[in-house]
Predict the structure.
Amino acid sequence: MSERFAEWFTITPLSFAAICAMLAATYFCRAGGFWLMQHVPLTARVRRGLAALPGSIVMATVVPLALRGGWPAAIGITCAFLTMLKTRNELIALLAGLATVAAARATGL
Amino acid sequence: MQPPEKPGLTLTRAGIVEGMKLAIPILPGICFFGMAYGAAAAQTHMSLLEATLSSWLVFAGASQLVALELWRENWTFTAILGLALIVGTVNSRLILMGASLHQWLGQLPAIKLWPSLFFLTDANWIISERYRAQGGHDAGIYLGSGLLLWVVWGAVTVPGYLISSLVPDPKLFGLDLVMPLFFILMLVPMWKSRADLVPWCVAGTVASLVWMIVPGYAFIVTGAVAGALTGAFLPERADV
């Protein structure tokens, strides 16, 4: 047991460095776009681009994932979207989406 | 939540609590994923300490899972550099999320702003965008949802690692799709005008084409940039 315990808490300087490199790369992404926008003049064009950006990120994430996931994913995502339109309740819409995906998979779609 | 009457951005304790509440619907999905990560880490050469530290320090699920494939017992400088590059590539979408929050979150003083950016993830980004689209002015929404997700994400890595063989496949409950589902339903209240429709469709189409041609996660950034550029070069719109 004590051997197992020691295994759990093993860390080498280099594996710690690897985790820190992952932290640095991720923080660079988190802060990088933000830092960039401090140096971009906010023209009307940039403002219009930024207005379209959040929805574009959502669509660029969701549409390929729906294609990748096949029918269950596509039907589930559509169902979550429609339930949100109807109820405006995130929890209900999310549950409806998850239930639809699970059900569609269970029927072997 | 009623946005405060002051037009400037605030950061209040009530906002942090409200942000935590807004993150609750996504928590079961995050728990399953964090546990799945812990279980996968247990099946590689990672120790429990390394797995938990990586969850708390990196706090970006997709890139952590990719990193597991590259994880090794003996590290060289080149291997660490390669790991950082791959992780940066998988997380490049966060660059765009940060850029899109800039106009709103940028009003925070630097001493609060730069540490807060550590907590930027998909879920609290979309929660913040939705809140902001409805005129919200409390950065606590962003920080509170990020903090709760961070604590839970790191904490569930431990049981996931310890009971790795018992962690169910997230696919069983559709939970592997929880983030795209959350994204799409949050888009509903963010809808402002029909002017959004063209850039959003361009983003979805370009991303799908890139996904078919290029392996990896390049489709998110290329599709999103295509959508934003389309928005930028469309004619003037009344609401921006």
